[in-house]
Amino acid sequence: MGKPLNIGMVGCGAISTQYLATFTKDDSIRLVAVADIDPARAQAVADAHPGARAVGVGELLADPAVDVVLNLTIPAVHAEVALQAIAAGKGVYGEKPLAATLAEAKDVLAAADAAGVVVGCAPDTVLGTGIQTARKAIDDGLIGRPVSATAMMATPGHESWHPNPDFYYQPGGGPLLDMGPYYVSALVTLLGPVVSVTGTASRTRTERIIGSGAREGEVIPVAVDSHVAAMLTHADGAISTLVMSFDAVRTKAPNLEIHGERGSLVVPDPNRFDGDVELFTLGAAGWEVLPVSAGFVDAGRGAGLADLAATPPGSEPRAGGRLAYHVLEVMESVLVAAGTGRTVAIESTAARPALVPLTVPEPAVN
Protein backbone atom coordinates (compact mmCIF):
# COMPACT_ATOMS: atom_id res chain seq x y z
CA MET A 1 0.00 0.00 0.00
CA GLY A 2 1.36 3.44 -0.94
CA LYS A 3 4.19 2.14 -3.15
CA PRO A 4 4.35 0.24 -6.43
CA LEU A 5 3.89 -3.52 -6.25
CA ASN A 6 7.06 -5.07 -7.68
CA ILE A 7 6.30 -7.93 -10.06
CA GLY A 8 8.47 -10.83 -11.12
CA MET A 9 6.94 -12.39 -14.24
CA VAL A 10 7.47 -16.09 -15.00
CA GLY A 11 6.48 -16.92 -18.57
CA CYS A 12 6.71 -14.71 -21.67
CA GLY A 13 4.17 -16.40 -23.92
CA ALA A 14 1.41 -14.84 -26.00
CA ILE A 15 -0.67 -13.62 -23.03
CA SER A 16 2.27 -11.75 -21.49
CA THR A 17 2.07 -8.93 -24.05
CA GLN A 18 -1.31 -7.88 -22.66
CA TYR A 19 0.01 -7.75 -19.10
CA LEU A 20 3.07 -5.83 -20.24
CA ALA A 21 0.85 -3.20 -21.86
CA THR A 22 -0.85 -2.64 -18.50
CA PHE A 23 2.49 -2.32 -16.71
CA THR A 24 3.46 0.58 -18.97
CA LYS A 25 0.39 2.64 -18.03
CA ASP A 26 -0.23 1.80 -14.37
CA ASP A 27 2.18 3.18 -11.78
CA SER A 28 0.82 0.96 -9.02
CA ILE A 29 2.53 -2.12 -10.50
CA ARG A 30 6.13 -2.32 -11.68
CA LEU A 31 7.91 -5.13 -13.54
CA VAL A 32 11.34 -5.73 -11.98
CA ALA A 33 12.26 -9.25 -13.12
CA VAL A 34 11.27 -11.68 -15.85
CA ALA A 35 12.04 -15.35 -16.51
CA ASP A 36 11.12 -17.80 -19.26
CA ILE A 37 12.04 -21.29 -20.37
CA ASP A 38 13.56 -19.49 -23.38
CA PRO A 39 16.14 -17.03 -21.93
CA ALA A 40 16.24 -15.03 -25.18
CA ARG A 41 12.52 -14.38 -24.93
CA ALA A 42 12.91 -13.16 -21.35
CA GLN A 43 15.79 -10.91 -22.38
CA ALA A 44 13.71 -9.37 -25.16
CA VAL A 45 11.01 -8.46 -22.63
CA ALA A 46 13.57 -7.00 -20.23
CA ASP A 47 15.17 -4.95 -23.02
CA ALA A 48 11.79 -3.43 -23.83
CA HIS A 49 10.94 -2.59 -20.21
CA PRO A 50 13.51 -0.43 -18.42
CA GLY A 51 14.03 -1.48 -14.82
CA ALA A 52 13.28 -5.16 -15.51
CA ARG A 53 16.01 -7.83 -15.45
CA ALA A 54 16.00 -11.14 -17.31
CA VAL A 55 16.93 -13.87 -14.82
CA GLY A 56 16.41 -17.55 -14.14
CA VAL A 57 13.34 -18.68 -12.23
CA GLY A 58 15.35 -19.48 -9.12
CA GLU A 59 16.98 -16.05 -9.10
CA LEU A 60 13.61 -14.37 -9.63
CA LEU A 61 12.09 -16.22 -6.67
CA ALA A 62 15.02 -15.35 -4.44
CA ASP A 63 15.06 -11.66 -5.41
CA PRO A 64 14.04 -9.57 -2.37
CA ALA A 65 12.81 -6.83 -4.71
CA VAL A 66 10.00 -9.06 -6.02
CA ASP A 67 6.76 -8.70 -4.04
CA VAL A 68 4.45 -10.83 -6.19
CA VAL A 69 5.20 -13.49 -8.79
CA LEU A 70 3.05 -13.22 -11.92
CA ASN A 71 2.64 -16.83 -13.05
CA LEU A 72 2.05 -16.96 -16.81
CA THR A 73 3.19 -20.53 -17.33
CA ILE A 74 1.06 -23.25 -18.96
CA PRO A 75 -1.79 -24.66 -16.81
CA ALA A 76 0.02 -27.95 -16.16
CA VAL A 77 2.67 -26.16 -14.07
CA HIS A 78 0.58 -23.36 -12.54
CA ALA A 79 0.58 -25.05 -9.12
CA GLU A 80 4.26 -25.98 -9.23
CA VAL A 81 5.37 -22.41 -9.91
CA ALA A 82 2.87 -20.96 -7.42
CA LEU A 83 4.09 -23.27 -4.65
CA GLN A 84 7.71 -22.32 -5.38
CA ALA A 85 6.80 -18.64 -5.17
CA ILE A 86 4.94 -19.11 -1.90
CA ALA A 87 7.83 -21.12 -0.44
CA ALA A 88 10.05 -18.14 -1.27
CA GLY A 89 7.73 -15.87 0.70
CA LYS A 90 6.19 -14.21 -2.36
CA GLY A 91 2.59 -13.49 -3.13
CA VAL A 92 1.45 -15.00 -6.41
CA TYR A 93 -0.98 -13.93 -9.12
CA GLY A 94 -1.62 -16.53 -11.80
CA GLU A 95 -3.22 -16.89 -15.16
CA LYS A 96 -6.34 -19.01 -15.08
CA PRO A 97 -7.06 -21.67 -14.03
CA LEU A 98 -5.59 -21.47 -10.51
CA ALA A 99 -4.17 -24.99 -11.04
CA ALA A 100 -4.68 -27.91 -13.39
CA THR A 101 -6.63 -29.80 -10.71
CA LEU A 102 -8.64 -28.89 -7.64
CA ALA A 103 -6.29 -30.93 -5.43
CA GLU A 104 -3.34 -28.84 -6.62
CA ALA A 105 -5.32 -25.62 -6.12
CA LYS A 106 -6.12 -26.67 -2.55
CA ASP A 107 -2.40 -27.13 -1.88
CA VAL A 108 -1.68 -23.65 -3.24
CA LEU A 109 -4.24 -21.96 -0.99
CA ALA A 110 -3.15 -23.96 2.06
CA ALA A 111 0.49 -23.06 1.49
CA ALA A 112 -0.38 -19.38 1.02
CA ASP A 113 -2.44 -19.32 4.22
CA ALA A 114 0.41 -20.94 6.16
CA ALA A 115 2.94 -18.48 4.72
CA GLY A 116 0.69 -15.45 5.14
CA VAL A 117 0.96 -14.38 1.50
CA VAL A 118 -1.72 -13.35 -0.95
CA VAL A 119 -2.98 -15.36 -3.94
CA GLY A 120 -4.70 -13.74 -6.88
CA CYS A 121 -5.82 -15.24 -10.16
CA ALA A 122 -7.17 -14.29 -13.54
CA PRO A 123 -9.56 -13.62 -15.08
CA ASP A 124 -9.69 -9.97 -14.10
CA THR A 125 -11.91 -9.09 -17.06
CA VAL A 126 -14.80 -9.17 -14.55
CA LEU A 127 -13.37 -5.96 -13.05
CA GLY A 128 -13.93 -3.96 -16.23
CA THR A 129 -16.87 -1.73 -17.04
CA GLY A 130 -18.82 -4.43 -18.91
CA ILE A 131 -19.40 -6.98 -16.15
CA GLN A 132 -19.35 -4.37 -13.39
CA THR A 133 -22.04 -2.20 -15.03
CA ALA A 134 -24.21 -5.33 -15.30
CA ARG A 135 -23.44 -6.14 -11.67
CA LYS A 136 -24.55 -2.67 -10.56
CA ALA A 137 -27.76 -2.99 -12.59
CA ILE A 138 -28.55 -6.23 -10.77
CA ASP A 139 -27.63 -4.76 -7.38
CA ASP A 140 -29.84 -1.73 -8.11
CA GLY A 141 -32.80 -4.04 -8.78
CA LEU A 142 -33.26 -3.15 -12.44
CA ILE A 143 -34.24 -6.73 -13.37
CA GLY A 144 -35.76 -7.72 -10.05
CA ARG A 145 -34.81 -11.02 -8.47
CA PRO A 146 -32.42 -12.91 -10.80
CA VAL A 147 -33.94 -16.16 -12.05
CA SER A 148 -31.60 -17.55 -14.69
CA ALA A 149 -28.66 -16.95 -16.98
CA THR A 150 -27.34 -18.32 -20.26
CA ALA A 151 -23.64 -18.30 -21.19
CA MET A 152 -22.36 -19.34 -24.61
CA MET A 153 -18.87 -19.61 -26.12
CA ALA A 154 -18.50 -21.22 -29.55
CA THR A 155 -15.31 -21.44 -31.60
CA PRO A 156 -13.81 -24.10 -33.87
CA GLY A 157 -10.69 -24.13 -31.69
CA HIS A 158 -7.58 -22.08 -30.97
CA GLU A 159 -5.25 -24.10 -33.20
CA SER A 160 -6.24 -21.88 -36.15
CA TRP A 161 -4.32 -18.92 -34.67
CA HIS A 162 -2.15 -20.14 -31.78
CA PRO A 163 1.32 -21.36 -32.92
CA ASN A 164 1.64 -23.80 -29.98
CA PRO A 165 -1.91 -24.90 -29.10
CA ASP A 166 -1.03 -28.33 -27.67
CA PHE A 167 -1.96 -27.48 -24.06
CA TYR A 168 -5.51 -26.52 -25.07
CA TYR A 169 -6.16 -30.19 -25.84
CA GLN A 170 -4.38 -31.80 -22.90
CA PRO A 171 -5.55 -32.28 -19.27
CA GLY A 172 -5.98 -28.85 -17.77
CA GLY A 173 -7.15 -27.53 -21.14
CA GLY A 174 -10.28 -27.91 -23.22
CA PRO A 175 -12.97 -25.27 -23.78
CA LEU A 176 -14.30 -25.39 -20.22
CA LEU A 177 -11.01 -25.02 -18.34
CA ASP A 178 -9.63 -22.59 -20.94
CA MET A 179 -12.59 -20.25 -21.53
CA GLY A 180 -14.90 -21.29 -18.73
CA PRO A 181 -13.08 -19.23 -16.08
CA TYR A 182 -14.21 -16.02 -17.80
CA TYR A 183 -17.84 -17.11 -17.91
CA VAL A 184 -18.09 -18.84 -14.53
CA SER A 185 -16.25 -15.97 -12.80
CA ALA A 186 -18.72 -13.56 -14.38
CA LEU A 187 -21.69 -15.70 -13.32
CA VAL A 188 -20.46 -15.86 -9.72
CA THR A 189 -19.74 -12.11 -9.73
CA LEU A 190 -23.25 -11.40 -11.00
CA LEU A 191 -25.33 -14.12 -9.33
CA GLY A 192 -23.24 -15.43 -6.44
CA PRO A 193 -21.68 -18.81 -5.66
CA VAL A 194 -22.73 -22.14 -7.14
CA VAL A 195 -24.05 -25.00 -4.99
CA SER A 196 -24.49 -27.82 -7.54
CA VAL A 197 -23.92 -28.69 -11.20
CA THR A 198 -24.91 -31.16 -13.88
CA GLY A 199 -23.18 -31.59 -17.20
CA THR A 200 -22.55 -33.45 -20.41
CA ALA A 201 -19.61 -33.41 -22.83
CA SER A 202 -18.36 -34.76 -26.16
CA ARG A 203 -15.28 -34.92 -28.36
CA THR A 204 -15.72 -34.69 -32.13
CA ARG A 205 -12.09 -35.25 -33.12
CA THR A 206 -9.08 -37.05 -31.70
CA GLU A 207 -6.60 -34.86 -33.61
CA ARG A 208 -6.23 -31.19 -34.53
CA ILE A 209 -4.07 -29.46 -37.16
CA ILE A 210 -2.05 -26.36 -36.28
CA GLY A 211 -3.02 -23.58 -38.65
CA SER A 212 -0.30 -20.96 -38.20
CA GLY A 213 3.30 -20.35 -37.18
CA ALA A 214 6.41 -22.48 -37.54
CA ARG A 215 4.47 -25.68 -36.84
CA GLU A 216 1.68 -25.04 -39.36
CA GLY A 217 0.25 -28.33 -40.62
CA GLU A 218 1.47 -30.38 -37.66
CA VAL A 219 -1.09 -32.80 -36.19
CA ILE A 220 -1.60 -32.75 -32.41
CA PRO A 221 -3.62 -35.18 -30.26
CA VAL A 222 -6.84 -34.28 -28.44
CA ALA A 223 -7.00 -35.78 -24.94
CA VAL A 224 -9.96 -33.81 -23.52
CA ASP A 225 -13.62 -33.23 -24.36
CA SER A 226 -14.02 -30.32 -26.76
CA HIS A 227 -17.74 -29.51 -26.23
CA VAL A 228 -19.20 -29.11 -22.74
CA ALA A 229 -22.72 -28.15 -21.62
CA ALA A 230 -23.74 -27.61 -18.00
CA MET A 231 -26.43 -26.41 -15.62
CA LEU A 232 -25.30 -24.47 -12.55
CA THR A 233 -27.55 -23.87 -9.54
CA HIS A 234 -26.60 -20.78 -7.54
CA ALA A 235 -26.99 -20.43 -3.79
CA ASP A 236 -29.76 -17.85 -4.20
CA GLY A 237 -31.74 -20.15 -6.52
CA ALA A 238 -30.84 -18.78 -9.96
CA ILE A 239 -30.01 -21.39 -12.60
CA SER A 240 -27.32 -20.81 -15.23
CA THR A 241 -26.96 -22.69 -18.51
CA LEU A 242 -23.36 -22.87 -19.75
CA VAL A 243 -22.08 -24.07 -23.16
CA MET A 244 -18.35 -24.05 -23.94
CA SER A 245 -17.28 -25.42 -27.34
CA PHE A 246 -14.16 -25.87 -29.45
CA ASP A 247 -16.32 -27.77 -31.97
CA ALA A 248 -18.83 -25.13 -33.11
CA VAL A 249 -18.06 -22.66 -35.88
CA ARG A 250 -19.96 -19.55 -34.79
CA THR A 251 -22.96 -18.38 -32.77
CA LYS A 252 -25.23 -15.33 -32.87
CA ALA A 253 -26.31 -15.90 -29.27
CA PRO A 254 -25.18 -13.31 -26.73
CA ASN A 255 -22.15 -14.41 -24.75
CA LEU A 256 -24.05 -13.88 -21.54
CA GLU A 257 -27.66 -13.05 -20.64
CA ILE A 258 -29.12 -12.57 -17.18
CA HIS A 259 -32.89 -12.89 -16.66
CA GLY A 260 -34.84 -11.56 -13.69
CA GLU A 261 -38.47 -11.31 -12.68
CA ARG A 262 -38.78 -7.78 -14.10
CA GLY A 263 -36.15 -7.61 -16.81
CA SER A 264 -33.28 -9.12 -18.76
CA LEU A 265 -29.69 -8.05 -19.35
CA VAL A 266 -27.41 -8.74 -22.30
CA VAL A 267 -23.92 -8.71 -20.82
CA PRO A 268 -20.81 -8.19 -22.98
CA ASP A 269 -18.20 -10.86 -23.67
CA PRO A 270 -16.63 -11.92 -20.33
CA ASN A 271 -13.32 -12.27 -22.18
CA ARG A 272 -13.35 -8.47 -22.60
CA PHE A 273 -13.19 -5.67 -20.07
CA ASP A 274 -15.76 -3.39 -21.69
CA GLY A 275 -18.77 -3.49 -23.99
CA ASP A 276 -22.41 -2.43 -23.89
CA VAL A 277 -24.83 -3.71 -21.29
CA GLU A 278 -28.39 -3.85 -22.66
CA LEU A 279 -31.56 -3.89 -20.55
CA PHE A 280 -35.09 -4.94 -21.48
CA THR A 281 -37.60 -4.38 -18.69
CA LEU A 282 -41.07 -5.87 -18.39
CA GLY A 283 -43.45 -3.82 -20.56
CA ALA A 284 -40.69 -1.89 -22.36
CA ALA A 285 -40.79 -1.27 -26.11
CA GLY A 286 -37.23 -2.45 -26.70
CA TRP A 287 -33.69 -2.81 -25.44
CA GLU A 288 -31.81 0.13 -23.96
CA VAL A 289 -28.04 0.48 -23.56
CA LEU A 290 -27.17 1.29 -19.98
CA PRO A 291 -24.61 4.03 -19.29
CA VAL A 292 -21.29 2.82 -17.92
CA SER A 293 -21.72 2.97 -14.15
CA ALA A 294 -19.06 0.77 -12.53
CA GLY A 295 -15.71 -0.90 -13.12
CA PHE A 296 -12.19 0.05 -14.15
CA VAL A 297 -12.32 2.20 -17.28
CA ASP A 298 -9.95 1.25 -20.15
CA ALA A 299 -8.69 -1.73 -18.15
CA GLY A 300 -6.52 -4.52 -19.54
CA ARG A 301 -5.09 -7.78 -18.27
CA GLY A 302 -3.24 -6.99 -15.09
CA ALA A 303 -6.07 -4.93 -13.64
CA GLY A 304 -6.38 -7.68 -11.04
CA LEU A 305 -2.77 -7.07 -10.03
CA ALA A 306 -3.48 -3.36 -9.64
CA ASP A 307 -6.52 -4.20 -7.52
CA LEU A 308 -4.38 -6.57 -5.46
CA ALA A 309 -1.86 -3.76 -4.93
CA ALA A 310 -4.65 -1.59 -3.52
CA THR A 311 -6.11 -4.33 -1.30
CA PRO A 312 -5.32 -3.94 2.42
CA PRO A 313 -3.01 -6.67 3.80
CA GLY A 314 -4.97 -9.64 5.05
CA SER A 315 -7.96 -8.94 2.82
CA GLU A 316 -8.98 -10.95 -0.23
CA PRO A 317 -8.47 -9.15 -3.57
CA ARG A 318 -11.43 -9.09 -5.95
CA ALA A 319 -9.62 -11.43 -8.37
CA GLY A 320 -8.60 -13.60 -5.44
CA GLY A 321 -7.53 -17.17 -4.96
CA ARG A 322 -10.72 -18.25 -3.20
CA LEU A 323 -12.92 -17.10 -6.05
CA ALA A 324 -10.58 -18.86 -8.50
CA TYR A 325 -10.73 -22.04 -6.39
CA HIS A 326 -14.53 -21.98 -6.35
CA VAL A 327 -14.64 -21.44 -10.12
CA LEU A 328 -12.20 -24.31 -10.64
CA GLU A 329 -14.31 -26.61 -8.44
CA VAL A 330 -17.41 -25.70 -10.45
CA MET A 331 -15.67 -26.52 -13.73
CA GLU A 332 -14.03 -29.72 -12.49
CA SER A 333 -17.37 -30.83 -11.05
CA VAL A 334 -19.09 -30.21 -14.40
CA LEU A 335 -16.64 -32.62 -16.00
CA VAL A 336 -17.26 -35.15 -13.24
CA ALA A 337 -21.02 -34.75 -13.76
CA ALA A 338 -20.56 -35.21 -17.51
CA GLY A 339 -18.66 -38.42 -16.93
CA THR A 340 -21.03 -39.90 -14.36
CA GLY A 341 -24.44 -38.56 -15.38
CA ARG A 342 -25.20 -37.28 -11.89
CA THR A 343 -25.62 -33.97 -10.09
CA VAL A 344 -22.48 -32.93 -8.21
CA ALA A 345 -22.62 -30.75 -5.09
CA ILE A 346 -20.08 -27.93 -4.80
CA GLU A 347 -18.26 -27.96 -1.46
CA SER A 348 -16.55 -24.58 -1.62
CA THR A 349 -18.12 -21.15 -1.74
CA ALA A 350 -16.94 -17.66 -2.57
CA ALA A 351 -18.42 -14.32 -1.67
CA ARG A 352 -19.38 -12.08 -4.56
CA PRO A 353 -16.40 -9.70 -4.84
CA ALA A 354 -17.22 -6.13 -3.89
CA LEU A 355 -18.52 -3.92 -6.69
CA VAL A 356 -15.81 -1.90 -8.42
CA PRO A 357 -16.82 1.79 -8.33
CA LEU A 358 -16.50 3.58 -11.64
CA THR A 359 -12.76 4.23 -11.76
CA VAL A 360 -11.00 6.30 -14.42
CA PRO A 361 -7.24 5.66 -14.61
CA GLU A 362 -4.85 8.43 -13.68
CA PRO A 363 -2.20 9.27 -16.27
CA ALA A 364 1.02 7.31 -15.68
CA VAL A 365 4.02 9.32 -14.51
CA ASN A 366 6.98 8.88 -16.85
How would you write the strand order of the largest sheet? 16-15-14-13-7-12-11-8-17
CATH class of the largest domain: Alpha Beta
Structure class: alpha/beta
The CATH topology of the largest domain is Dihydrodipicolinate Reductase, domain 2
Largest beta-sheet details? 9 strands, mixed
State the total count of DSSP E strands: 17
Overall geometry comes to: globular
Low-pLDDT runs of 5+ residues are: none
Strand content: 15-25%
Question: How would you describe the overall organization of this protein?
Answer:
The protein is α/β, with parallel strands linked by helices. The protein has 2 domains: 5-121, 3-Layer(aba) Sandwich (Rossmann fold); 126-293 and 326-345, 2-Layer Sandwich (Dihydrodipicolinate Reductase, domain 2), CATH 3.30.360.10. Helix content is 28%, strand content 23%. The chain contains 9 helices and 17 strands. The protein has helices spanning 16-23, 39-48, 57-62, 78-87, 102-115, 129-139, 174-191, 303-309, 321-340; strands at 5-10, 29-35, 53-54, 68-71, 91-94, 119-121, 146-154, 194-202, 207-209, 219-221, 227-234, 239-245, 256-260, 263-267, 278-281, 288-289, 344-345. It has a 9-stranded mixed beta sheet with strand order 16-15-14-13-7-12-11-8-17, with helices on one face. Strands 3-2-1-4-5-6 form a 6-stranded parallel beta sheet, sandwiched between helices. Helix 4 (78-87) packs parallel to helix 5 and helix 7 (174-191) crosses helix 9. The mean pLDDT is 95.
Structure at a glance:
By secondary structure, the chain is an alpha/beta fold.
